[in-house]
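Need a sequence for this fold. Nothing fancy.
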């Protein structure tokens, strides 16, 4: 690099440094907006000891992972502030610990979590297992991810509840449609389809962390008969009163062979 370029670069750095008011709290990353320091959002920072204690004593908690030398991470503090506010306003999430972790100071964490490939990242710990959020950073979508981790299978009491489930149309704060795959299982004779029901429940359990997939279950015989009468071959195969079907787009259904219930996730 030529000497004059070095002089100009040093001069520019000098201007930037001299512009910092020594009486104000310095931001860890200079590009952070004023009043929002890096790692400022959250209940407390994680250490290995604190994490082990949380896993032992808390059913669920959130970890917002960043690195102290990441400019993008710094800019996401505002997003985290919005997410935390949304959780505090949610009756089911308001008491969930919102923790922070600086990977550059805690490299051990990367060995504990599979799929941690980018920063910043959101991780939700539930029942001792950690789920990495892999989708678009937007508060409504992250909340839906958390809800899906907490309850991947919804049980219905009526046909109307199933219809509401299938017709739900969610949009994020930017009015973008949130695509969702609905998987519905209706099991009429529980003794006859006991193994299929177990496989269906296991498939729902294995979908935890897949924010786009929602499972629903109906076991009420009277309501299943109503559903069969109203929707017929769109939801049911032949004259069977037990069925599993998938809705990928509104009002389009594909029926799953009950003998292949364990393959539901791979078919989505």
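Here you go.
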């Amino acid at each position: 690099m030529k000497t004059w370029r070095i002089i100009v670069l040093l001069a520019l750095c000098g201007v930037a440094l001299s512009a910092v008011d020594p009486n104000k709290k310095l931001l860890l990353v200079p590009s952070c907006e004023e009043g929002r320091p890096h790692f400022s959002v959250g209940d407390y920072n994680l250490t290995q000891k604190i994490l082990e204690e949380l896993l032992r004593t808390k059913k669920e908690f959130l970890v917002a992972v960043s690195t102290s030398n990441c400019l993008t991470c710094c800019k996401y503090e505002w997003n985290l502030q919005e997410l935390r506010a949304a959780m505090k306003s949610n009756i089911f999430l308001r008491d969930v610990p919102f923790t922070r972790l600086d990977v550059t100071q805690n490299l051990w964490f990367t060995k504990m979590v599979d799929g941690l490939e980018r920063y910043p990242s959101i991780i939700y710990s539930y029942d001792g297992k950690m789920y990495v959020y892999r989708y678009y950073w937007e508060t409504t979508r992250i909340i839906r991810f958390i809800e899906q981790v907490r309850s991947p299978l919804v049980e219905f009491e009526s046909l109307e509840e199933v219809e509401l489930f299938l017709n739900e149309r969610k949009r994020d704060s930017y009015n973008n449609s949130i695509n969702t795959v609905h998987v519905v299982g209706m099991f009429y004779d529980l003794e006859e389809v006991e193994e299929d029901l177990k496989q269906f429940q296991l498939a729902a359990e294995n979908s935890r962390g897949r924010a786009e997939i929602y499972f629903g279950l109906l076991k009420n015989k009277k309501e299943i008969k109503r559903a069969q009468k109203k929707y017929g071959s769109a939801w049911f195969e032949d004259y069977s009163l037990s069925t599993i079907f998938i809705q990928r787009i509104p009002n389009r259904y594909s029926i799953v062979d009950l003998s292949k219930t364990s393959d539901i996730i791979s078919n989505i």
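For context: Confidence is low (pLDDT under 50) at residues 1-28.
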